[in-house]
Specification:
It is a single chain. The chain is α/β, with parallel strands linked by helices. Helices cover 29% and strands 24% of the residues. The strands form 3 sheets. Strands 10-9-8-11-6-12-15-14 form an 8-stranded mixed β-sheet, sandwiched between helices. Helix 3 runs parallel beside helix 4. Bound molecules: ligand AOF and zinc ion. The site of ligand AOF has 17 residues, from helix 2. The site of zinc ion has 6 residues, from loops.
Length: 340
């Protein structure tokens, strides 16, 4: 049964979870709030991979107030011993009465076992409050658990006529300053950032997060490029050479990136690379900055995608359209994406 205040506390737990953005992967972001007699007695979130889980932080803040309390947690409390002791038994030990969970943990070591343990210990459990928000927040973690591939977001800046570059390849700058800051924020939410060798050769991008605070994702290059490129100065850079791409294909590259701990991957171009992700149905999300400029002849965002008829055009489900100063920012999901 959901109570009136449950939503408020779960929202708080979700906003705590978000503080872990960029630092928890390949673990999920998780937030926890403990409430006793209408008073918040404990709060916590998973701050970084390998660190204490959200519930443990919140329990330690609550002290003895945990007895008889209600616990709000954005992900099912874990039942396994990983790098840290399991949370569900800790909640039982600390005498909580009720546990409100946003969504189950798809990790095969947990998958409902945490909830079972709470229930068999006599704790009232409810699942599904603000579930859509909780699943969306951890879409990389959830897709990873289900498919062993990262969640792929195509990000591009285009003019009004959908071009990502002029005929001669120049693209600096299409979108305005505010959009570029936003793009850096998006980068920091991803564990990896992938570009094709064409982009590395022509633009020499550094692909770092500079405009906002936050970690820089691991650079991933499709194709061989020279050592003089800025991106090569990052020791974490992953390069798939031309032979590997031909032999293994994009899907295996995604499986490999997941093995390396990447749960969210941003694909930043160019047109050929974006087209191949779209062609193979491997893209989940689109984040498009649209600048009020007509660019004329040039490279279109999906330049190598050949569509035979309008019925076959790739539909995108719109999530939001926002204004960023003079630009528009479109966010959507592709039909082949998991239904999160
Ligand atoms: C929770 N609360 O705050 C998190 C959970 O290696 P470990 O010990 O950090 O365990 C990682 C797994 O634990 C991860 O795959 C997911 O199933 C769960 N994460 N669970 O109860 C948390 N971060
Ligand atoms: Zn845990």
């Amino acid at each position: 049964m959901t109570r009136v205040d449950d939503q408020i506390y779960m929202r708080r737990a979700l906003s705590l979870a978000m503080r872990g953005t960029g630092f928890t992967s390949p673990n999920p972001m998780v937030g926890c709030v403990i409430v006793k007699e209408g008073i918040v007695v404990g709060e916590g979130y998973h701050r970084r991979w390998g660190g204490p889980h959200a519930e443990v932080e919140a329990l330690s803040m609550a002290g003895n107030h945990s007895f008889g309390s209600t616990v709000y947690v954005t992900l099912e409390p874990c039942s396994h011993r990983g790098k840290t002791p399991p949370c569900a038994p800790a909640l039982v030990e600390r005498g909580i009465s009720r546990c409100v969970v946003a969504t189950v943990d798809p990790d095969e070591r947990v998958m409902g076992r945490g909830l079972d343990l709470l229930r068999t210990s006599g704790i009232e459990v409810s699942v599904g409050l603000l579930e859509d928000e909780a699943r969306w927040l951890n879409r990389g973690f959830i897709k990873g658990a289900l498919t062993s591939m990262p969640w792929v977001t195509i990000k591009a800046a285009v003019g009004l006529d959908g071009k990502i570059a002029l005929k001669d390849g120049s693209s600096r700058w299409i979108s305005g300053e505010l959009s570029r800051v936003k793009a850096h924020l998006l980068r920091s939410q991803n564990d990896g950032i992938l570009v094709g060798k064409g982009t590395v050769i022509s633009d020499d991008p550094s692909l770092t997060v500079r405009e906002v605070a936050g970690p820089s994702p691991v650079p991933v290059i499709l194709g061989t490029v020279g050592d003089d490129r800025k991106i090569r100065s990052d020791s974490r850079t992953i390069v798939y050479d031309d032979g590997f791409i031909k032999r293994e294909g994009l899907k295996n590259i995604l499986l490999d990136l997941h093995r390396r701990g990447i749960r969210r991957l941003m694909v930043e171009g160019g047109g050929a690379v974006i087209s191949s992700f779209l062609c193979e149905g491997l893209a989940d999300e689109l984040s498009l900055f649209i600048a009020p400029k007509i660019m004329g002849e040039g490279v279109s965002v999906a330049s190598c995608l050949s569509i035979g008829s309008m019925e076959e055009a790739l539909g995108v489900r719109t999530l939001s359209v926002k204004r960023q100063s003079e630009d528009l920012w479109f966010e959507g999901v592709f039909p082949c994406s998991l239904d999160l």
